[in-house]
Amino acid sequence: HDFWLSVLTPRVWKTLHMLVYVAYALVIGHVALGLMQAERGLLGAAMLGAGAALVIGLHLAAAARERRLDREPTPRAEWVSVCRVDEIAENRAKVAMVGRERVAVFRYDGRLSCVSNVCRHQNGPLGEGKIIDGCITCPWHGYQYRPDTGASPPPFDDKVPTYNIAVENGQVLVDPRPNPPGTLVMPIPDHAATPALEDPTPFYVGYAPRTDPPLARHTRLAVAGIGLVSAGTVLLSALTQPQFVQASFDYGHPLPVHGRLTAHPYPTLEVMENGRTARYLLAGSGKHGATLAAAAYDGRAVEVLGTLIHRGNSSMLEVVSIQASGSDSSIRAPLAQLEIGRFTLTGEIVDGKCWLGVMNPGEGKTHLDCAVRCVSGGLPPMLVVRDSAGTERHLLLTDAGGAPMSRSILPLVGRPVSVTGMVLREGDLLFIRAEPSAVRLLSQ
């Protein structure tokens, strides 16, 4: 820290320090704006706007207050009159603009000294500090300087400029020409008729043995208040969040499943469960389909070792391995496809793996990039549609000949679309066969 502070100078170091807040704001904005893409209510936007208005408002209020200090007093000849002696509390300072720089005039032990108001650490306001153990103590991080030399006590070697000072008719005058940092300027008597009063404002730095009781009480109340507001905000946000769907991914717990494998258009496994034929869609690991792994076993009885992905009445297996298991008489003849009719349906194209349970939610703008990568990796695309009552259906999307859908639809994945094609039922699976040109982006 000291190395870069000395190499970059305090001004550059402070600029870098302040840019951290810009980065923080960008992170908050990135997460919040991404989250709100999946929100249908206004609570998230209202919370973000209120938080931004509060933070920006506090900064503007602080800037307005500080701006008053930047008005330079009227000079008397070559010296600048900054305040009256009796305006300065004991062991405290009066801040004023002198020579276009802020200076701090400290009053202590019946004497006056003047130094630059800018701490060498991170440009903290020395004039808001206090003299402790004979040293000016910065209120930000407790850096200390002797008021007569502007130098830190040994072994520290930080230094701030000092200023020549005088008192005329109870008025404090400051020479606007700063002395080199660390220059000794003998303190002058304050010539006050009455002793200076102690400033009752609490002051605390981290290494102080104890803090003022009023400040401690104020801090405890502030922390408790902030905690309650934070807890309430979190609770309100949680209560207004849309509920996740009932979906699961048994990660790390693969199980063997016996059945007959069908490789086209998308790999599925037909099994007998409770006297009926059930279908498992098959997927590869990560963002990969299972087409290559399943191709050699098309129409054969197999044992698939896979991890179950489940949503509602639909299931998928993330394949760990496939091996032939001989004939299996429990599997009936291949399921016939039943044409239901030609329809134009509106909804969203999702990747089957994430939507069925690997990600929750596995749809919408927040999942768009992932869905595109998954579909391009060979995972089955699904058209998810909902009617006015909220009833949900998902249809495997193929081209008009029943083959896997063309990659030309990738720019439409994760977006509102309309699809015109033939809807078919095959067991418990629904398909929609459509030309790529029949998949169209909707404006909303």
Written description of the protein model:
With 444 residues, the protein is α+β, with helices and mostly antiparallel strands. It has 6 helices and 24 strands. The chain has helices spanning 2-36, 43-69, 213-239, 291-294, 352-358, 368-376; strands spanning 75-76, 79-84, 92-98, 101-108, 111-116, 130-132, 135-137, 144-145, 162-163, 165-168, 171-174, 188-189, 247-249, 255-262, 268-273, 276-283, 301-311, 314-324, 338-351, 381-386, 392-398, 416-426, 429-433, 439-441. Strands 3, 4, 5, 9 and 12 form a 5-stranded antiparallel sheet that branches. A 5-stranded mixed beta barrel has the order 14-15-16-18-17. A hairpin with a 2-residue loop joins strand 22 (416-426) and strand 23. The two termini are 52 Å apart. The mean pLDDT is 89.
From the N-terminal CA to the C-terminal CA, the straight-line distance is 52 Å
- Computed over alpha carbons, the radius of gyration is 36 Å
| Count of beta strands | 24
Order of helices and strands: HHEEEEEEEEEEEEHEEEEHEEEHHEEEEE
How does the overall form come out from the CA principal axes?
Answer: elongated
Report the sheet-strand fraction.
Answer: 25-35%
**How would you sum up the major sheet?**
5 strands, antiparallel
Round the mean pLDDT to the nearest integer and report it.
89
Helix content: 10-25%
Put simply, the count of helices is: 6
- Given the helix and strand composition, which structural class is it? alpha+beta
Unreliable segments (pLDDT under 50, ≥5 consecutive)? Answer: none
